[in-house]
Design goal:
The protein is of the alpha/beta class. It has a single domain, classed as 3-Layer(aba) Sandwich (Rossmann fold), CATH 3.40.50. 29% of the residues lie in helices and 33% in strands. The protein has three helices and eight strands, in the order αβαβββαββββ. The protein has helices at residues 3-21, 35-51, 96-108; strands spanning 27-32, 57-62, 71-74, 84-92, 113-121, 131-137, 144-150, 156-163.
Length: 169
């Protein structure tokens, strides 16, 4: 995906969210730290333009399994109660990260609804995560990796498919 295509995809997802929500007062945009948060910022900016009011993005960080606590938040609002939450990540693979982020949200309050957005869906789901807003479905092989990159200024640089084929000598 080129930077221009990423921006068009985020604009399309913003329009879909607008059609589904029809009100910004209870809308909460969360991004999985770090690349999902950058996409969440882009999405919040597009939604702000559509609604004509400021919509902010917040980051959710899911820690590695080896760390003492699996979940933490970065700049999250105090309560999710009564909110329409959109959680976005760059690439969805097994669904573990998104599943844990949703767990954090539901243990921090009772939102009216939670919907998932992703730029790329690789397939291979192991957790029950349903994507409502999707940029591109790109089934991959297990040894392949999808990389979403951003510039130092936080602008999208592109999405690449890398093959991790090992050569046994």
């Amino acid at each position: 995906m080129s930077p221009a295509r990423i921006e068009r995809t985020i604009a399309r997802i913003a329009c879909q969210i607008f059609e589904d929500t029809r009100g910004s007062d209870q809308l909460l945009i969360l991004g999985i730290f770090e690349r999902g948060y950058r996409l969440a910022e882009m999405l919040a900016a597009k939604l702000s333009d559509i609604y004509g009011t400021e919509i902010s993005a917040h980051a959710v960080r899911v820690k590695e399994q080896s760390e003492a606590s699996n979940l933490s938040e970065v700049g999250l609002p105090e309560s999710f109660s009564g909110k329409k939450v959109i959680v976005i990540d760059d690439v969805l693979y097994s669904g573990r990260t998104m599943f844990e982020a949703i767990h954090l949200i539901t243990t921090s309050g009772r939102p009216n609804e939670i919907r998932v957005a992703a730029l790329i869906d690789r397939g291979h789901r192991r957790y029950p995560v349903d994507i409502r807003y999707l940029g591109l479905y790109s089934p991959t092989k297990l040894k392949e990796h999808v990389a979403c990159r951003f510039t130092n200024k936080g602008e999208p640089d592109g999405v690449w498919l890398n093959s991790s084929l090992s050569v046994n000598g």
